[in-house]
Write a structure and sequence with these properties.
globular, 4 domains, seven-stranded parallel beta sheet, Rossmann fold, Hypothetical protein af1432, alpha/beta
Amino acid sequence: MTKIKYIAHSSETENHEPHYLDEHIRGTYFQARRFSHTFDRYGITAIAAIAHDLGKKSAPFVQYLKADKKIRGSVQHAIGGGIALSSIMQEVEDERIIMAAAIVAGHHTGMTDLRTVFTEKIPKAPQYLKAIPDLSRTEMQIIKDILKRFPRLPLGGKSDSKSSFAYKEMLMRMCFSALVDSDFLDTERYFDYGKSKKRHGGALSIQQLDQQLQNYMLELRRKGQDKEINKNRNEVYMACREAAKQPLFFRALVVPTGLGKTMASIAFALEHAKRFNKKRVIVALPLVNIIDQTAKKYQEVFGKASVLEQHSQLSYADDKDESMERAKLAAENWDSFPIIVTTTVELFESLFSNRTSKTRKLHRLTNSVIILDEFQKLPIHVLAPIFQALHILMEHFNVTAVLCSATPLSFKNTELVGNMGTPVEICKNHDQLFVGMKRVEYIRVKKPLTASELVARMRKHPAALCILNTRKDAFRVYREAIRQKVNGQHIYHLSNRMCPHHRKKVIEQIKEDLKNEKSILVIATSLVEAGVDLDFPTVFRTMAPMDSIVQAAGRCNREGKLEKGTVFIFELVGGGMPGGMYRKGTEQTRILLNHHGTAALHEPWIFEKYFRSLYSLGGDDLLDSYGITSLKPFSFEKASRLFQMIDQNTVSILCKNYQGEDGQIERLIRRYKEAPYLTKEWYREAQLFAVNEYVDGSFFKENQNQLEKVSEGWYIWHGDYDMKTGIMDMDEGGD
């Protein structure tokens, strides 16, 4: 009897042999084992790899591959492997089979809640897939052998059942990720071997990267002046080097702004990776504008071939050189780059997602150092699930987490880090660093200021930055500054009503003016507070949460050129205020400053009082507003739907009349009009020229006649775009 050669994929290219199923299963299996061997000692990924495409043995799928016109998805196959595995469950009682069946069932459409796989997906599968177990006896025997060869999963006792389930959930996510990535890569190798080859090459090893960094820092010290700030920077850098030699996987680096946290933290990560078998460093930051700056710095030190920058506003469309092609491919699965710079939104929404496109990269988190920079800006409403996930990654997946901040935080508040224990401080003398680094004097303005009075005060200083709580206030003060403008003075506005491409150009011009000691006033929202490398002698900050005030002060006398910079804390007459925890944080800051005075902002103890009082206001669900940690185990679909880092619904609005470069916006709109569907690359490129607006905000509600819907969550703005202030107009009433 002739053995049937089943086909996994067929190409329409002439003389291209079919991709036979046994070859595809073998290729996926070996790659999946390579990806998962450090965390899956139980064989779950191996079982899933053997079973994942067994549904392609069905008669309808065989016929589908022979058809001239193929309608993708018209013949189901993914659940076929789950049916084969469920038949093994009748002979062998082993939860690894249950987990593998769920992984296989979702390897195209996404991870489904475990219960749904066995109560809905398998029972309701097409009749033609019920024959898969009989057609797959060889593979089923291999799976039974794997079950014997690999150890069973540990049984969780009653006392730790919650943590046991949480670990098994994460294990399933990682196994799913390894399978999906392996399946994609093996399929890609068949269809486009040239593309597959582009994924690799050029990156330095962890050892080489560390040597590169040491050479760079040596040269920096050689050129540096013998200033106090440079001595402090070197102290922080050496503390990171020393701390990295210890096998402690939960660390905190809390040091004042301007002490080289960006380079010191990567020094810790590379030294630690060398010693404890870590494969990559993942740097996650809260804001896109910080990422751009951080990635450029790392690329300058380590080269573009070793640093992947990934965020929603990075487009590869106009850069076709080989390194950018490789970066574009690596953004799908974080392969082949030892340093990843991304957003906390991308990191954690991927970690809780059930979608294949998001979860494909998750297995790259294992055996890594994760640096959470400006971690105090993680959204409070999802802190509990975030830190539960980090705890499991550290406990079971050889991950080291480093919490970085320029805000003195008390880790005695268990709410900050959930139940995962206190991170060990890298800089033991960080309290002294904060006391010693008094580069600014805080002055509280006694009476509330009108916009006119505020601008008049700002004009007394050759260069001043003013940060306000809302876009409406920033626009109002900017208009007043223009009204009072004197010859030779440059005035800039910065808010997220300006698209990212515009903001970036304005920030570059501001830096140039500061470098050339021009007379300059900048009126901005809080988007400049974290990670934007500006250095003003004077900063005005409207009353805000305490950590925001300290972050604003980080833009003042940053390089220590003055004996003291000045930070004015003021109230604006008629000023707006965001709601929620921002408003509560501002109220607590006002109370504490009324009682202790502004000098206390140099003392670490004031922040312990601040955060303790702030968290006490939040209620029981403060840290897990969506109840994610209370979901039934293995509720992947529900967790994915509920978990949102940004807790308000926003839409992206492409600014048609922004005067961009080289007709990019016109090309984007033309592609939108002509293309049958919009690609990920279209959205990524369009984000550079888009602003985000709240669906329930006044701007979105009141300007429907100027908005053209492109797709779910995307619009084109046909209204005016001001090259100074963006899409905000004079009658704008929202914040």
